[in-house]
Amino acid sequence: MTVADVGLIGLAVMGQNLILNMNDHGFVVCAYNRTTSKEFCSKLKRPRKIILLVKAGSAVDNFIEQLLPHLEQGDIVIDGGNSHFPDSIRRCKELEDKGILFVGSGVSGGEEGARYGPSLMPGGNPKAWEHIKPIFQAIAAKAPDGAPCCDWVGESGAGHYVKMVHNGIEYGDMQLITEVYHIMKEVLHLTEDEMADVFETWNKGDLDSFLIEITRDILRYKDQD
User: Fold this and answer.
1) Which range of residues forms the domain containing residue 141?
2) How far apart are alpha carbons 57 and 128 in whole angstroms?
3) pLDDT digits (tens, 9 = 90+) for 179-220
4) Is the Cα dihedral 111, 90, 149, 170 positive or negative?
5) Which of 66, 153, 161, 163 has the greatest number of beta carbons closer than 10 A?
6) Is residue 203 included in any domain, yes or no?
7) How far apart are CA 65 and CA 27, in angstroms?
8) Is 141 in contact with 171 (CB distance < 8 Å)?
9) What is the average pLDDT across 73-77?
10) Do residues 100 and 179 both lie within one domain?
11) Given 103, 126, 156, which residue is the final one in a domain?
């Protein structure tokens, strides 16, 4: 009996929360646990849409190999892990040669984002987008104007390339915050509360961001020891 809108492989924290998110938006999810690939694939509506949330590298290739004998032309495999974009380029080509549509999607927002709305960066075989768009844009975070934080970013390895750039910007921001903290503490000799006041002021202006906000909260926190 084929009832599920989408299948998901990888039941760690991100996978569990993404399932709950999709369920909240009315999508039926078939989760891969101890059933065989054949049984798993038989539960999915055509074209099958299968999300992989497993460790980047050989695990992705291994699961794809297990799934291939049970897939049909036009089925869609989505890698939602942190794969390196050249691997996504390769997988997109290899699966296209077999008639399978591959999507590599960046997923940002961590555990809470997966549960209540991540930023999604899908790219790959463009034929897949019309089939996954309703799901992806429904579960994605929403901008203040209501627009989903998800759109098609390009072909082949574009999704994971965009996620790589995203991560680079994030790590750069974190480095800037640590340098500012060092100057405030070691040069200006500010207390934690005084530093928190500065970050709170910054978070009300152009520097408003999650990283500035949590830095403020960390500085406000009082250890009990």
Assistant:
1) 6-156
2) 22
3) 999 999 999 999 999 999 999 999 999 999 999 999 999 999
4) positive
5) 163
6) yes
7) 26
8) no
9) 98
10) no
11) 156
**130/172 Cα distance (integer angstroms):** 34
Q: How far apart are the first and last CA of the chain?
A: 57
Contact between residue 51 and residue 159 where contact means Cβ atoms under 8 Å apart: no
- Residue 61: which residues within 8 A CB-CB, separation 6 or more? 91
Do 108 and 21 belong to one domain?
yes
Rounded distance between C-alpha atoms, residue 185 and residue 167, angstroms: 27
Q: 138 phi and psi, to 5 degrees?
A: -75, -40
Is 163 labeled as catalytic in the residue annotation?
yes
Give dist(CA 67, CA 46) in Å, integer.
Answer: 15
Q: Phi/psi class of residue 87: alpha, beta or left (left: φ > 0; alpha: ψ in -120 to 50)? A: alpha
The 10 Å Cβ neighbour count of residue 89 is: 19
Nearest to 88 by CA among 101, 75, 98: 101
Give the list of residues 6+ apart from residue 43 with CB closer than 8 angstroms, or none: 1, 2, 3, 4, 7, 30
Which one of 94, 170, 192, 200 is the catalytic residue? Answer: 170
**Phi and psi, residue 31, nearest 5°:** -95, 135
Express each pLDDT in 26-67 by its tens digit: 999 999 876 668 889 999 999 999 999 999 999 999 999 999
Start-end of H helices in the chain: 13-24, 37-42, 58-67, 85-97, 110-116, 129-139, 158-182, 192-202, 210-220
